[in-house]
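The instructor's notes for this session suggest beginning with a concrete chain rather than abstract definitions. Hand out the sequence below and ask the class to guess, before any prediction is shown, which regions might be ordered.
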Amino acid sequence: MTAPRHPVVRHLLVTVGLSITPALATAQQPATPPVRPDTPLWLRPPGEVPELPDAGGESGGESRGERRREDEIEPDRDSFTPALTTAGRGRLITESAYSFIDNRGVKETHSFPEMLLRYGVTDRVELRLGWNYEVGGAPSDITSVSQPGGTAEGAGLERGSLISYGVKVAITEQRNWLPTSVLIVLGTTPTSGEATDTQLLATYAWGWELANRWKFDAAFRYSTGSDREDHFDVFAPSVVLKVPVGEKWGVHAEYFGLFSRDKEQDFVKHYISPGVHYLVTPNLEVSLRVGWGLNDQSARFFSNAGIGWRF
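After discussion, reveal the predicted structure:
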């Protein structure tokens, strides 16, 4: 077929061809599916720039710790497993509690005031200072403001006090399966009583906040201990499930244990402990927890009531 010789017709055909060629080329290319917001950068098409969410919005990617610091206080003393948040930059949290421990074989232990001051140097780092006094037949097992002791058959406790000092650092924030985690490093030094040795205590805690606002946290604590001339190590794993009940109430169920190593008479202690918490204001919380020992080397029963106040 020969091309038209009339210049007007030839010009019209060229114009139509140029206009439909891009449309035909586009139609022949496979459709590119939309890019999901959670697609990793290395899997995105060249030139595809992810849209950053607005800071502070519902999709702003706020971490568990950031949300908690803005919303309400979360004391460390709520459970044996510490909270996975820090005090927050420039904020001070004051915690205090009283513990009653029904020991086996020796008289009961009373622990007070279990005072703990937590001050946020930055959003991720807080300084900690605590003081406690105990009187009874054995050191307290149920808090982090006590030096590890022996079994009921081992060294007893008449009375004594100690000071604790250290730091808490936020390590990771929850992202999908990556948990929120914190590290606590403390020293404890006796200020009265027969004990004279300074001990080291380190706790690594991690956990997840679920879609229904339930929290599943765990921790592993290591501490040095001494019983007169007997020096040993104590390992203390714990796990806790925290469930909110309405806007102000919360409950939890927890297991924790203490296991000695290189002690003249090693001990193994298992506890189970439920608790309840009430948020008076976003900066003031009161709570109560109780617990029962699950074997002969642990205390029969304990109760702990206290308060946390954020400034």
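Then share the key points. The first helix runs from residue 7 to 28. The domain at 64-310 is CATH 2.40.160.40 (Porin).
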